[in-house]
Amino acid sequence: MKRALILAAVLLMAAQPALAGPVDLIPHPVDDDGRVTLGDLFDGAGAAAEVLVGRRAGATVVFEAAQVQAVARGAGLEWSNPQGLRRIVVRQGAAPVGGALSAENSARPASADISARAGAMVEVLTYARSLSAGETVQPEDVVWSTVQAHQAPSGAPRDAEQVIGLSARRALRAGSAVAVRDLAAPQVIARNDMVEVAYMVGGVELTVTGKATRDASAGDPVPVLNMQSGRTIDAVAVAPGRAVAGPAAQAARRNPQQFAAR
């Protein structure tokens, strides 16, 4: 009986991931073969070094930090994300480093200058896959690529955070450069939707429900028809089925997120 218990304990231990303890994120992670593993991301990954996190199809790949943390935890590694990173970018081989991405440090390398002379090569954001009209741009959908300066669109985004979460205005082809004019904030209200409009002034909030007369993204003006009075309310969309009117509307156009959770 004792021997059987010992054997069961040994088998149970073997089935668990080897705990390597706390690990540190490599400042500027790269991979050489398109397979991004925990060993490419963390110092001291030990036996978990070959655990696959994801694959890189272009010059870079972007992972959500929470996704990486979950894979690491499942392999027995402990990463507390002390910097509070939102995203992590991994580049090919010895490509120019960009490091772990957060909302503050996901910008294109300073060496990339869109205004470079004709014939020069610059680094711009490109689409890693084709997107249909209305699709939302995810972190893995954009990568930094090197193109000739004349192929870089005017006003090209210098930060991946500028485009992640936006939706495509039209069909976009894989490999093409990202242009702000091709993207828009995701639609939150459709024409004929019933919308709750909040009128805020002096700490007082009044609400009325009406019908939207046009489509709108967060921060866009949306006229709402009050079905009882027949009057149209000039409002600003802030979230699905929600809009604000009155003095708060102007602030909502600049920052709709501050009203979205109310």
How is this structure best described in words?
The chain has helices spanning 2-15, 38-41, 65-74, 248-254, 257-260, and strands at residues 21-22, 24-25, 30-31, 35-37, 42-43, 52-55, 60-64, 77-78, 87-92, 100-101, 121-127, 142-148, 167-168, 183-184, 187-189, 194-201, 204-212, 216-217, 221-225, 232-239, 242-245. It is α+β, with helices and mostly antiparallel strands and 262 residues long. The protein folds into three domains: 19-101; 121-184, Type Iii Antifreeze Protein Isoform Hplc 12, CATH 3.90.1210; 187-260, SH3 type barrels (Roll). The protein has a five-stranded mixed β-barrel with strand order 16-17-19-20-21. Strands 3, 7, 9 and 10 form a four-stranded mixed sheet that branches. A two-stranded parallel ribbon has the order 1-8. β9 and β10 form a beta hairpin. It is elongated, with a radius of gyration of 24 Å. The termini are far apart.
Largest sheet: 5 strands, mixed, barrel
Estimated structural class: alpha+beta
Q: What is the count of helical runs? A: 5
Strand sequence of the main sheet, in spatial order? Answer: 16-17-19-20-21
Overall, the morphology is elongated
Q: So what's the oligomer here? A: single chain
Strand % is: 25-35%
Report helical residue fraction.
10-25%
Mean pLDDT over the full residue set: 80
User: How many β strands by DSSP?
Assistant: 21
Q: What is the element string, with H for helices and E for strands?
A: HEEEEHEEEHEEEEEEEEEEEEEEHH
Q: How many structural domains?
A: 3
What is the CA–CA distance across the termini? 62 Å
- The radius of gyration is 24 Å
**Unreliable spans:** 4-18, 95-118
